[in-house]
Fold:
Amino acid sequence: MGEPYPKLRATHLTRAFGRTPHTVHALGPLDLTVAPGEFVCVVGPSGCGKSTLLRIAAGLLRPSTGTLEIRTTSARPAAMIFQDYGIYDWKTVRANVRFGLDIQRVPRREANARADDWLARMGLSDFADAYPATLSGGMRQRVAIARALAVEPELLLMDEPFAALDAQLRTILQDELLDITQSLRTTTLFITHSLEEAIVLGDRVLVMSARPGRIIAEHRPPFPRPRTGDIRATPEFTALKSELWDLLRKEAVPA
Amino acid sequence: MTTLTKPPAESVLVRRPGPRELHPARTHRRRRALELSLALAVPLVLVLLWQLAATRAWIDDRVYPAPSTILADGWDRAAAGDLWPDVWATLKRVLAGYAAGTAAGYALGLLMGSLSLVRAALEPLLDALYVVPKLALLPIFLNMFGLGEGPQVALVAATVFFFVWISTMSAVMSIPAGHRDAGQVFGASRWQMFRHVLLPASLPAVLVGARIAAGVAVLVIVASEQIAATDGLGHLIFDSRALFQNDVMFVGIVCVAVLGVLFSELIRFAGRLLTPWAPRDRGRGQS
Structure:
């Protein structure tokens, strides 16, 4: 808001897919700023371009018009956590967590130490030498989180990371992520379609419209940091959730 | 569940662990032992049946020599050293051709799988060559390389190439985009992308192609040796039939079969070492 140097700034960002007769406008125009250390959650109906926004930020996709600027000191500021397919079946858990470090040519000894440190923080130390195929969905996603954070990214991008998990596990992982990100203060863009997730985790919750996605509302959950998952039981939480849901429902219903 | 008894007697349906749950190790061991004995017993019974038919003169043992005759003959020839030059000649051609064909097929498959321009340039041409029976190319290879090892090795290489090329290309093309994305976001270079993502992701499917190619390589070399070679197992088989040495012919056939099994098992074993994450392709109940 009053931040002079935003970490990330999107200006009139749009993205269309397909060639002229069959063009689909997936995103925007969209304007967005994210302050350093801010945790921004984006919610919106399916197909509203949330993931497109994230892929543009990750450098996997270019915008059709407009720009997205990331203020950074490194050439690869971002790490991304995917809903699926992110981690590799052919690497052990430790090698998966080390992957980003291997790519950056961090010496093996140091890379192993950092990977093991993150495995310990995620409670995965006993599975360091196992292959991901033997792990449960929750553990696989912990591996993905550890892999992204092991490179100490300036910008963390999360694309519905818990969507494939069951409800209990999702709550547990939300609390774990809340704990970690509050100690790291990494700038994060978090895509979800769970309002609860967005309110628990976010400094700011943005609601996107149906395709082409634009930001139609912005809320700051009134819970001071450090917060815990207990805020789910407060009346403010419920009130905010139903307020956001009223907005979102109008967009989610197919026009 | 009895319905005939007059007063519907209350019955308790109990779900209890079976032997598999109570003694998992023992059940698994027995299962494996049974599978192994079946795998051995079925061919053994068939051979015994053949032996019986030959000794009882149900079949003409000049045309279909008894297994015992084949075995004794093979043993004698091996002991006398008559068999090894042919086995060695065939083995050398298969290995040389296989290595060349696999390397070329993998390289081109990888290139065509990842670069659509290369694919556009070469796919129609290779598709056309793919359907040409490779044995029909033997005369061309004979013209190109003259007599000797050249045409034999080239023929095996050409055959193997197509199997490995097709399986590599389709494996690389079917790597989920998410796998590439994850590497790209971390900033993987082309070589890193290959080493960390494309190579391991495509390897299981490539190895299936390589194993099929191993069998076909043996098949092709034997056929081509029958046409244009002065040694090798294919030559031995054809030559001894011409001389009406049917027992020697069968020795050759058995050698080819053993060679083929050993070769494709070797590839499978190498595949297991190379892809420890992949599910085992033994194909039976693993759970």
